[in-house]
Write a structure and sequence with these properties.
It is built from 2 helices and 2 strands, in the order E-H-E-H. By secondary structure, it is mainly alpha-helical. The protein has one domain. Strand 1, helix 1 and strand 2 form a beta-alpha-beta unit. It is elongated. The termini are far apart.
Length: about 50
């Protein structure tokens, strides 16, 4: 899975859980990992703005 967030965060754990739930029951997940994904430019700009 790719994720533009901290791979050790609660959000990452939830994403991994939900991804596993989307796999058909007759498939076997033998491992998993999170790779740094692209972060949307709009999101980057939002974090660059000073807090109000």
């Amino acid at each position: 899975m790719t994720l533009g967030a901290d791979p050790d965060s609660e959000h990452a754990n939830n994403c991994m859980k939900h991804a596993g739930e989307m796999v058909r029951a007759d498939n076997n997940i033998v491992g998993h990992f999170i790779s740094q994904g692209k972060v949307a430019p709009k999101l980057i700009k939002m974090f660059e703005k000073p807090a109000a």
